[in-house]
Design a protein that fits this description.
This protein is mostly helical. The chain has a single domain, classed as Globins (Globin-like, Orthogonal Bundle). It has helices spanning about 5-25, 30-35, 40-55, 65-70, 75-90, 95-115, 120, 125-130.
């Protein structure tokens, strides 16, 4: 990681990013309905990104569980990533922005797979292979 990835820089990024999220017509309303306290949300997500990018281990949570209760689709992750890319490119050098973007892409892919991937829909034979005789 580069030296420009610091606690203060990540906090600024989280605030910039969620400013964009709140202004977005597609995902803004989802977040507005889900987040009761934006200061607390910013602090939690700063802890998350500090844990991920700086290895601080401060974040204690279950992102998949939190997102499972939201009215979201895979397309929302693309909007989220576009806003994230815009925010990181405004605040960081290309090297640090690239690291933040790559990490966010892995996180989005992981969450999307966890929330939406259903092998039985991808492979029609998968359901038959998992059902026992007599079921």
């Amino acid at each position: 990681m580069t030296n420009e990835l610091s606690e203060a820089a990540l906090e600024a990024l989280v605030r910039r990013f969620y400013g964009k999220v709140r202004a977005d017509s597609q995902i803004g309303p989802i977040f507005e309905a889900a987040v009761a306290d934006w200061d607390e949300h910013h602090a939690r997500l700063t802890d998350f990104w500090s844990s991920v990018m700086l290895g601080t281990g401060r974040y204690k949570g279950a992102p998949l569980t939190v997102h499972a209760g939201l009215p979201i689709s895979p397309a929302h992750f693309e909007v989220w990533l576009a806003l994230w890319r815009a925010a990181v490119r405004e605040l960081f050098t290309p090297e640090a922005a690239g690291a933040l973007e790559a990490t966010a892409e892995r996180i989005a892919r992981s969450l999307s797979l966890g929330l939406f991937f259903r092998p039985e829909f991808e492979d029609p034979d998968a359901k038959r292979r998992t059902v026992k005789c007599g079921d």
